[in-house]
UniProtKB/TrEMBL annotation:
Domain CASC1 C-terminal intervals: 460-626
One GO CC annotation: axoneme
Family membership noted in the UniProt record: Belongs to the DNAI7 family.
Originating organism: Suricata suricatta
Single GO molecular function: beta-tubulin binding
InterPro entries: CASC1_C, IC97/Casc1_N, IC97/Dnai7-like
Protein name: Dynein axonemal intermediate chain 7
Listed Basic and acidic residues bias regions: 10-42
Length: 715
């Protein structure tokens, strides 16, 4: 057996291998170092080239910035021009009312509206039909005053005017409700003559476009008759035994308007800031007028002296030349004054627009747990006035006459439950009253509505004292138990459709666009044409709605009010950011973006971008594409991403489907001081012509709708 010996590695061989390994490692390190240095040099070279390109772009932008901003200023002259047209429209409306001489008062003139109120107070013995007929005029006057407060620019409203208008509104509201009570008393005096043969009680139903009235008088006092239903409907009450045997009447007055919720006061901060602007405007105009007057005097003196001198020398001087020179001076001075007025009006309009998107600093504070926060919730469908009255003495026929005892104190409310219940045997003699109401047809509730009652002492809506609420959405009926009668309303979260999921602004024609806002519950399409807006369509999942607003053209402010009253609230307020998680943007950047998007809206479509959330508060990002045809948008359009920070607009190198966000400038493009000049680089000739031919009222309406929806912050 032979053993195989392992050959030993000598020391020299081991040293040689170690040396070879070291040399290999050194070679690899050297190659890596050289490669790294080369890559670093290439990177630095690219950075140098990019930096030089960027510096060239910045230099180019700086060189043309003043020229671009001057051109943009001229284009944005459409906003003060639109404001002047709105002022002219308001004055024309007042003049048309004056020359109509139809007997209706001008609610903005205090003596006229006060005379109307005084004369109506003196009218007596008006039936419910008379009051309902007169209420149409009264509601029209209230609406006019309400719109005056909203449509008048804040810088044009004085504290005195605001108090006058709001005071007139409150007087008209109170008087109208008082007239309904008086007319109800007249009806109840005749209850015995209007008795229903089947039930032995009186029932009266009056339906109108503004009110629905249900009156029931308990004449028979049958303790078994506990269920009151009006006109074979499910609307009515389940009354307790104590009421079934009492000499009472029950009234349900459903006003499709809300005259109970207190008027929102005009913010003092807004008044202060706009008053400063107004004073500034007035002072500047006065200074210009003084300068013009002085200039005219200086121009006229030499002309006059020259005329006298020539006459003394016997030279004939034609008076026409002097008149022409004077006229030229006056026209030049007038043009200077108009130019300054427009400039100041432009600054004022800009300040007023900025106030529309200003966020409040402090959240409203409330005292009770059950109090309804009217900044978070909104009342919809009007107010249901639920009242129990003591039945007044009935009229009696006597010798061909009708004799009736008229109580001096008028119609008296029946207190339920009474302040003291010691005289009653059972503890539960005054249980909550079950009420069934019909929800107004043209109101949309995206969730089951909540019920609130009016607390007259605290002058606020409360949710306590209401139980067993159930809502049948198909029948639009809501049933609940109420501890005490009084005004009740249905409320919904005002921000239920916020934040928005997406939006798109697409041109349909010259001076006509379609704004689409998509929320969790619905998709709303709004057409804007000239100075009018229209609800084009609503898409709801398994929800019925009345198309009462669809197809109706209204001014932007009236349109916004109508949508809110319908429950389609997509318009944030100054306090909305306390109740909605938003993508808050710098107000000045947001304002500039809306104004410039409105300028371009006749020729370019804009849309929501997911990158707008991650780009920061001092930048906005939207999708953009040219759109000149009236055809429906293609399924996958070629959008361009646009970023704007208020002072610089640029196209981005990324798209909506990119995995990561980058602010890198799109290759072979430049940045500009504003959106108009940025799109001018790649827009077609037809697109730019359409933009320049857009009417100022249309641009102003689009801008107002963008400011009201605040799509860049609430999407």
């Amino acid at each position: 057996m032979s053993a195989r010996k392992t050959k030993k590695i000598t020391k020299a061989e081991r040293l040689r291998k170690l040396q070879e390994e070291e040399e290999r490692q050194q070679k690899e390190e050297e190659e890596a170092r050289v490669k790294h240095e080369k890559e670093e040099m290439e990177r630095l070279e690219r950075q140098r080239i990019d930096r030089e390109k960027w510096q060239q772009l910045e230099a180019k932008d700086l060189e043309r910035r003043n020229e671009e901003l001057e051109e943009l200023y001229l284009l944005e002259g459409c906003f003060p021009e639109a404001e002047k047209l709105k002022q002219d429209t308001r004055w024309l409306s007042q003049w048309n009312h004056y020359i109509q001489c139809d007997g209706s008062p001008d609610p903005s003139i205090a003596p006229e509206i006060n005379t109307f109120i005084s004369l109506w107070k003196e009218e007596t013995n008006e039936t419910l039909e008379d009051v309902i007929a007169k209420s149409k005029l009264v509601l029209n006057l209230i609406e006019k005053l309400r719109l005056l407060l909203l449509q008048m620019p804040s810088y044009g409203l004085e504290d005195k005017t605001i108090k006058q208008y709001q005071g007139s509104i409150l007087e008209l509201q109170e008087l109208l409700h008082l007239k309904f009570n008086t007319a109800t008393e007249i009806l109840l005096r005749q209850a015995s003559t209007l008795v229903d043969l089947d039930s032995g009680n009186m029932e009266k139903v009056i339906q109108d476009e503004n009110v629905t009235l249900y009156v029931w008088a308990n004449l028979k006092k049958n303790p078994r008759y506990r269920s009151v239903r009006f006109s074979e409907t499910q609307i009515g009450f389940e009354i307790p035994r104590i009421l079934a045997t009492s000499n009472v009447a029950v009234r349900l007055l459903h006003t499709h308007y809300d005259h109970v919720t207190p008027l929102r006061p005009v913010s003092t901060s807004l008044q202060g800031r706009t008053a400063t602007v107004t004073d500034f405007v007035q002072d500047k105009v006065k200074n210009v007028e003084a300068e013009i007057s002085k200039e005219l005097q200086e121009e006229y003196k030499p002309l006059e002296c020259e005329s006298v001198s020539l006459r003394e020398e016997g030279t004939a001087v034609e008076e026409g030349d002097t008149a022409v020179q004077m006229s030229s001076v006056q026209e030049e001075s007038k043009a200077t004054k108009c130019e300054l007025e427009m400039k100041l009006l432009s600054e004022t309009v800009l300040a007023a627009q900025l106030l529309l998107i200003e966020n409040a600093n402090d959240k409203p504070s409330f005292f009770g747990d059950n109090e309804v926060d009217l900044c978070q919730f909104t009342a919809l469908g009007g107010v249901y006035h639920l009242d129990i009255f003591e039945l007044p003495p009935q009229c009696k026929p006597m010798k061909g006459w009708m004799i009736v005892e008229i109580l001096k104190e008028g119609l008296q409310k029946y207190i339920y439950p009474p302040e003291s219940t010691e005289d009653f045997e059972t503890e539960n003699a005054f249980p909550p009253i079950e009420v069934t109401l019909e929800v107004q047809e043209n109101v949309i509730f995206f969730e089951d509505p909540m019920v609130a009652r009016w607390d007259a002492e605290g002058e606020q809506w409360q949710t306590d004292g209401i139980s067993n609420v159930s809502y049948k959405s198909e029948e639009r009926l809501i049933t609940f138990s109420l501890e005490t009668f009084g005004p009740v309303t249905l409320i919904q979260d005002a921000h239920i459709n916020m934040p928005f999921q997406s939006w798109e602004l697409r041109p349909l024609d010259v001076n006509k666009v379609l704004l689409t806002v998509t929320t969790v519950f619905t998709e709303i399409e709004i057409q804007i044409k000239e100075d009018l807006c229209m609800l084009a369509s609503i898409k709801l999942d398994n929800k019925k709605h009345s198309p009462v607003l669809e197809g109706r053209w209204m001014t932007p402010i009236c349109f916004i009010l109508a949508l809110k009253e319908t429950g389609l609230n997509i318009f944030p307020t100054r306090h909305s950011h306390f109740y909605v998680v938003i993508n808050n943007k710098d107000p000045l950047v947001e304002l500039k973006a809306y104004r410039q998007l409105a300028l371009l809206s006749s020729a370019f479509a804009f849309g929501w971008s997911k990158w707008n959330v991650v780009c920061g508060s001092n930048k906005v990002i939207v999708q953009l594409r040219e759109h000149l045809t009236e055809e429906e948008p293609v399924p996958d359009p070629d959008w361009t991403l646009l970023m704007f920070n208020g002072d610089r607009a640029q196209r981005l190198n990324i798209n909506e489907n990119s995995e990561t966000f980058s602010e890198a400038l799109k290759e072979e493009t430049e940045f500009h001081s504003n959106l108009y000049h940025m799109v001018k680089d790649f827009a077609s000739k037809d697109a730019m012509e359409r933009i320049r031919s857009s009417r100022c009222q249309f641009i102003d309406s689009v801008c107002h709708m963008l400011l009201s929806t605040r799509l860049l912050s609430y999407s």
